[in-house]
Amino acid sequence: MSSGTIPQPDGPATMRLEGAGITLGSNQVLRGIDLQIPAGQTLVVIGESGCGKSVFLKLLIGLLKPTEGRVLFQDQDLKLLSENRLMRLRLKYGYLFQSGALFDSLSVEENVAFPMRQQGILAENTMRMRVGESLEAVGLPPSLWTRMPSDLSGGQRKRVGLARALVMQPAIMLYDEPTTGLDPIMTGVINDLILKVSRSRPVTSVVVTHELRTLATVADRVVMFRPLSRLEPWESQIAFEGTPDELRKCPLPVVKSFLGGHGVAEFAATPGGFNEPVPPAISRGIQP
Amino acid sequence: MLGAIETSGDFAMFVARVAFSLKRGIRWDVIGPLLVEIGFRSIGVVLFTGCFIGMVLAVQAHMQLAAYGAATRLGQMVNLSVIRELGPVLAATMLAGRVGGSISAEIATMRMSEQVDALACLGVSPIRYLAVPRFLACLILVPVLTVFANFMGIIGGSLVATEIHGIEPYHYWQHASESVDLWDHMMGLIKAFFFGGSIGLISCYVGLNATGGARGVGIAATRAFVISFLTIMVCDFFLGLFFARITPTMSQLLSGGPS
What we know:
The structure holds two protein chains of two kinds. By secondary structure, chain A is α/β, with parallel strands linked by helices. Chain A has one domain: Rossmann fold (3-Layer(aba) Sandwich). Chain A contains ten helices and ten strands. The radius of gyration of chain A is 19 Å and the shape is globular. Mean pLDDT of chain A is 83; it is low at 1-9 and 272-288. Chain B is an all-alpha fold. Chain B has one domain. Helix content of chain B is 87%, strand content 0%. Chain B contains nine helices and no strands. The longest helix of chain B has 43 residues, at 213-255. Chain B is elongated, with a radius of gyration of 21 Å. At the A-B interface, helix 2 and helix 3 of A face helix 5 of B.
């Protein structure tokens, strides 16, 4: 193994979707998504379960290929890249999975070292140092570093997953429901970590969440998806796109309904969140 | 029907990707532990199966041969059957259940818990990291374990023949050694090679395409065994037909003259 450094990205990446959509089997999940994710911004994606938020993240990293339209990373169409080029490009991404997705046959340290070890571009000492820095950055005490993933709590697993995603210093971070299933304290810890990541170094972030507290803490921009099953063919799947403040003022019943059904009072009380609570929606129907 | 064609096409693409990944080099650091895991832990069951194949064959064949006064030919029948046919097929069947099911369940679990997606997100090809090493391990180990199964089958058959049926060991071994040549061993090992490759490819493919949570893992393990077993049987038939055509020529070539 040679000594060297991990290639650094030029800066945070720009992503763009042009009419992107995907059909899985006979089920159309996303349709006609036009979206720009500016470099260095944190985009929060919200929406009901089953509206395609996680599929959207998988399109962004090329795990799924759009069946219509294009997904562009720094103007490169992911669909046109060969498997090898796509694999290399993915080194510029960090992905925090909902479950952590830690390799259960590897210890915490080995999990975090895994991407560097697979690339074989760092000396063992440098790699250990990077692993230590990454685990410290997510606040995981050294006593847990030699443990197996099965010995960790949900919050600890997410922290290790975050350390593994960050160790390659990605240009774009994708978070899939980072706080789902965590207690309020751990939710706050993970939210702070996401914020810390985006403030400590230039990175573009996309956060898929149901938690309005996460939205309030980390979002520069917000996108709200609607499930296609409830839409007419002419309706846009994106119900809302704007800043968190614009989201608060959005008069659309579908937006109010979502916010009202997801503990908006808690969101309102969060520093940086809404200044005043949005009243629960009266109408829960979707306006054409 | 359309589904079957689609799955066949998808499997063909998977095989092509495995072959393409092989060109990029072999990850011996990943294969080493698998060889130990698959090989070492399967030796016991293969030795046991092989021994009893030979013993059962000797019991059954003795009844037929003794009726014609040809009991001393038992060694010929047992050894040819074990080396050409039963050793490779039964060793592969045992490994399809033990190893194929385990590979499929492991990869299916990784798929359900998003570990396969995590590999891809970390710039590591799941085909290269998961499928290729397991395919190669099966390709190497099934022939090796077939040799163990054959050896124990021959020993088991000879024990039954000489100790239970009272056949003179000299005659038993003389007939056995006269009738089995190098080509017979090669036929068995070539079959084992194909069986091993089939088990590895099918198990990895089924595991990587598993869906449906914990139930899906169980289904994947069962499906991997059933498809591997059927493939072994079909493969055995066609290889048997092919070998039947070329055996006279090959025996002649390998023995260095007319047989």
